[in-house]
Amino acid sequence: MRDSGDLDKLVKVVSSALPGDQKFIALHEPRFCGNEWEYVKECLDTGWVSSVGKFVDRFEQDLAEYTGVNNAIAVVNGTAALHICLKLAGVEQNDEVLIPSFTFIATANAVSYCGAIPHFADSEMRTLGLDPFKLSNYLRDITEVKRGHCYNKITGRRIKAVVPMHTFGHPVDLDPLMEICANYHIELIEDAAESLGSYYKGQHTGNFGKLSALSFNGNKVITTGGGGAILTNDESLAKFAKHITTTAKIPHKWAFNHDQIGFNYRLPNINAALGCAQLEQLEQFLIKKRALADSYRKVITEVDCVSFMVEPEFAKSNYWLNAILLNKPDITKRDYLLEKLNDQGIMSRPAWTLMHKLPMFAEYPKMDLTIAEGLEMQLINIPSSVVLGETNE
Amino acid sequence: MRDSGDLDKLVKVVSSALPGDQKFIALHEPRFCGNEWEYVKECLDTGWVSSVGKFVDRFEQDLAEYTGVNNAIAVVNGTAALHICLKLAGVEQNDEVLIPSFTFIATANAVSYCGAIPHFADSEMRTLGLDPFKLSNYLRDITEVKRGHCYNKITGRRIKAVVPMHTFGHPVDLDPLMEICANYHIELIEDAAESLGSYYKGQHTGNFGKLSALSFNGNKVITTGGGGAILTNDESLAKFAKHITTTAKIPHKWAFNHDQIGFNYRLPNINAALGCAQLEQLEQFLIKKRALADSYRKVITEVDCVSFMVEPEFAKSNYWLNAILLNKPDITKRDYLLEKLNDQGIMSRPAWTLMHKLPMFAEYPKMDLTIAEGLEMQLINIPSSVVLGETNE
Ligand SMILES: Cc1ncc(COP(=O)(O)O)c(C=O)c1O
Ligand SMILES: Cc1ncc(COP(=O)(O)O)c(C=O)c1O
């Protein structure tokens, strides 16, 4: 490739921020250096590995305490959490739900599980997440509010909810989004799958939505193997979330009665045990992740054609996945970088294919998506494991 | 209660078959006495706790080998397994699916997740599962086959599948059921959630359906904390099942493309590790469960008003949950027994409330359900853990 000088320099500086003695550096691997084994062993020794057990209760309490959201309901993964958040926010068959096109597939799939239709919105460079100003202008043009509901004038369908996603741990600008939601009678659900440990104006993400979803997949800041949680400040929604994720069984000393179609979305106790141990270490993990981001930032600033994604000014990010942005969208350059980095054993990847480009979502409504289209061609993620920040502390 | 003599005798004999030194005897608790520790610790030590890892692959291979079904796909639980079985068998929105009314809620819920309608069928005393002869007569009356599909003449809807469930581990009579499926162009899906280790005419359950579902919930013969598996002898369905349960992502060195709406139904590696260790012990577990069933049978035979459920003559059962049947349905007697046993710390429970009696399924189609209605009032399950069979070997 011509003009690859800057890119080659970038590969060098990224490499310089990473340990030199490893053949392969993963994008994000978990770190188990706390009470993981002790808690898991306790599950095996007592036989409490499954759907009830003290670690599930404790993990829920610990999550509520950590995030400052009143209630946390542990579930089997982040996708399940999103599904239930949408359902409990009242999303019904044939509703539309606004989501970023620039997101992981789970956000769109969860909308589909409700029989609803994802409606794709653009992102902004500042946060990589939903652009509230662009959204506001768009809604002004295409919607009307009737009898307390927001309708898409073009499709005739109700727009029931919006799901901002805190991309790679960087919080979206929530204040203007909440204002939009209030004005248009749209429910706010935060996809906080990537943002445990991230704060918007001093408050933990997940506090702003009617309900919010966390993920503890193996690649996240902390992991339970597979797992997720629903967060909500609404007591009765929290009760409902617990009920419907545990087959909607009515408590009784022996009878099996269920009062509605429920789900088996429970998190097993053994996975919750892992989560309790991981959560104890989260503050330490975040310090190390920030140290790694810092050293990336310092060296990447030296390179001309790119920038390093830093937290928005109103936020404190968990720096879940570090991201480099080409100054201009350029898929050739992006792929050159990806090839070079991966060839050197530095695992890196582009962001997701935009949702509106996937065959099953191609016909769904969308606004102008210029920024998202650019991001797809200009962003790459680089190794971000906690362990990589330990030498950088 | 009048005439409680026999029942009181029953409580005594059940108690005599159980260890006398325990305050509380659970209905079914897991047993970890193999390589559980070692395998789970390996996951923690290597960091492979999540969605990929060697134990997932190995558990799938071990399950295929054990059951004799060509392919096993590990998933997050039995409910998810059933959902995907139905989907892959071609169950679509507004189809009807025949299921026993006498089953656990998951069978009916999974049908609902497909947007399809459960159509309730009766059970037979021999197996506690679907009665093929009654079903055959019923289908002759209410269906017609047009262009290779079976239609319910009354509702006009297509009947796409039938899901027999092997209740408490006792296999249903599969041969006549398969004949019905062939004649009426109905797909057979086995709900084998309760029947790992159970054989029909020498072949493991799960070999007869187009696809079948297993569960490894904490109360099952073996457990993974939470978990399940899809079994199928069809190679291409197996590939499809793996694909759609792992977000339908197209393999690529870095790109995120998904070709359809998929699910996050993966079993985490740490849960699969547990499964591998448990499966190694299954043969031993089955011997102990059979020993326990044997000692129950011997003492319960002495009591007049009841019988002990034994495996059908064509089957070898895993005796997952032992069951006592009152000779005649009698809810007062049933509840008397339940009270007495539970009061003594001998955990026992009735079977499930029949599906067609639950509010969300009350309006759905059903045949005459006399046997199921009786079973609800005459059956109770008594403690069945592996460990209880250890003193009885
Ligand atoms: C933005 C986003 N939403 C949802 C999810 C779904 O979480 P899970 O993988 O735990 O189902 C993820 C993570 O995978 C994610 O990154
Ligand atoms: C008959 C039947 N079907 C399905 C399931 C669902 O399995 P799981 O609990 O693993 O989702 C179970 C067990 O709970 C069951 O007994």
TrEMBL record, chains A, B:
List of catalytic residues:
220 (proton acceptor)
Q: Give one Pfam family.
A: DegT_DnrJ_EryC1
Q: Which metal ions or organic cofactors does this protein require, according to UniProt?
A: pyridoxal 5'-phosphate
Please give the coiled-coil regions recorded for this protein.
none
Q: Which InterPro entries match?
A: DegT/StrS_aminotransferase, LegC-like, PyrdxlP-dep_Trfase, PyrdxlP-dep_Trfase_major, PyrdxlP-dep_Trfase_small
Where N6-(pyridoxal phosphate)lysine occurs, the residues are 220
Alphabetized, the UniProt keywords read:
Aminotransferase, Pyridoxal phosphate, Transferase
The GO annotation for biological process reads: polysaccharide biosynthetic process
**GO molecular-function terms, A-Z:** pyridoxal phosphate binding; transaminase activity
- SUPFAM superfamilies membership: PLP-dependent transferases (SSF53383)
Q: Does the keyword DNA damage apply?
A: no
**Segments traversing the membrane:** none
Which family does the similarity line name? Belongs to the DegT/DnrJ/EryC1 family.
Protein name per the record: Aminotransferase DegT
